Amino acid sequence: MKTKNEQFFENKTYEQILGELKFDRHLKHFEKKFKNKKIAIYGAGIMFDYIIENYDLSGFDIIAISDKRFEYHPVDFHKGIKAYSPSELLNNKDIDVILISTLYPVGMKGYLEKVIYEGVKSPKIYFLLNKPFALYWEEIF
């Protein structure tokens, strides 16, 4: 039996998924909410690549992008954004907000809070996608 997440994402393109989630409207909301905030993106995979190639992110002050793969395969930049391994995020005290840019962000949020920022104050962490609550709930349990 397929999970609700699997059913929701099954046979859909990123364009269809983001359209159903009204991502353009959500992005405008975040743009206002995070005005004058320095942002790090967590998750440099194909979802973020699709977003940066198809949406206008110029209203965001994105100063960093981080991905676990940068621990093992370091790069200086990804899609024109300064790249950091997750452990290097701790050294960047300028970050106000982290936006997690994956289809399944709950585990990544836990990883950032409990592993990377363990024992220290972390920046505010949000999910870039606005999936229905039931889909996030399924990820938690």
- H/E series: HHHEHEHEEHEHEH
Mean pLDDT: 93
Strand order of the largest sheet: 3-4-2-1-5-6
- Strand fraction band? 15-25%
CATH fold category name:
Rossmann fold
Q: In DSSP terms, counting alpha (H) and pi (I) runs of 4 or more, how many helices?
A: 8
Largest sheet: 6 strands, mixed
Give the name of the CATH architecture. 3-Layer(aba) Sandwich
Number of strands: 6
* Helicity level: 40-55%
Q: pLDDT under 50 segments (min length 5)?
A: none
Q: Which value, in Å, is the CA radius of gyration?
A: 15 Å
CATH class wording = Alpha Beta
Distance between the termini: 16 Å
Class per helix and strand makeup: alpha/beta
Give the overall shape: globular
Please give the domain count.
1
Describe it for me?
- With 141 residues, the protein is α/β, with parallel strands linked by helices.
- It has a single domain (4-140), classed as Rossmann fold, CATH 3.40.50.
- 43% of the residues lie in helices and 18% in strands.
- It has eight helices and six strands; from the N terminus they run αααβαβαββαβαβα.
- The protein has helices at residues 4-9, 14-20, 23-33, 46-54, 69-72, 86-89, 106-116, 133-140; strands at 38-42, 61-66, 77-78, 81-84, 97-100, 124-127.
- A six-stranded mixed sheet has the order 3-4-2-1-5-6.
- β1 (38-42), α4 and β2 (61-66) form a beta-alpha-beta unit.
- The longest helix has 11 residues, at 23-33.
- The chain is globular, with a radius of gyration of 15 Å.
- It starts with a helix and ends with a helix.
- The mean pLDDT is 93.
